[in-house]
Amino acid sequence: MSDSRREAYPALGGKQVSDTSPVSLVCCDVVGAAAAGGSVLERAFAEAIATQGVVTGTAAYVRSMVQFDRTRGWPPADVVRSLFPEEEIRAQAANLAFERSFRAAVDRFGVLPLPGANEALAKLTAAGTKICLVSSLSRPALSLVMERLDWWQRADLVLCADDVARGFPWPDLVLTAVLRLGIGDVRDVAMVTASEGGILSARRAGSRFVVGLLSDVGDANRLLRAGATHLLADIGELPDLVASRPGLTTTGFTTASD
To answer: Which residues make Cβ contacts (< 8 Å) with residue 200, sequence separation at least 6?
Structure first.
């Protein structure tokens, strides 16, 4: 790794951004650990707002997709409410359309675990680390993804937006996992997520070990600004990172500073 990359992203070169504590629970954002998650969500969202007259080629569509990008990780119902803040009926209709479109998009394009994700979860479990799979998706949407990933048996607990008062970026999902699994200190929780909303949720809950999953150029800056303490380009390296709690490896990932 070049010196310029180390200077630009302290979390990339094996240095910690902040102190971390022993990890007894890993909260893993399901969408972030699944390939095609972002494109499926984006397609479903675009189709949902189209039912409300917000279509490709319009200024309203551009504004809506910018808002979608800014609110990645939020519950879809909250995203559409932010688009139609004074029109609850339209927001509810768009959310219902999103649920239909999401199922259709998953059927068309599929959802697979990221390479190494299954092995990483298995290693964490074998090491005695509890696993909570979390998502701001609704229960039906998350259940569909869990079925396609065949992940029901890979976690001690599965939580979605319907299980809490507030989804990402609020701390409710992480704190609910801590309570239900009997974790003594939220500082012993690691969050693994590809969204700013997931990172903010963990930091607001009090976690000191927040791993941002990298998938594209620009992710590093975006996730570090949100408060990630570590960055990971390969989820298969997660068990080693949890065991040693160093900075991160980024094999095969290119950043804008290269």
So the answer is: 168, 169, 226, 227
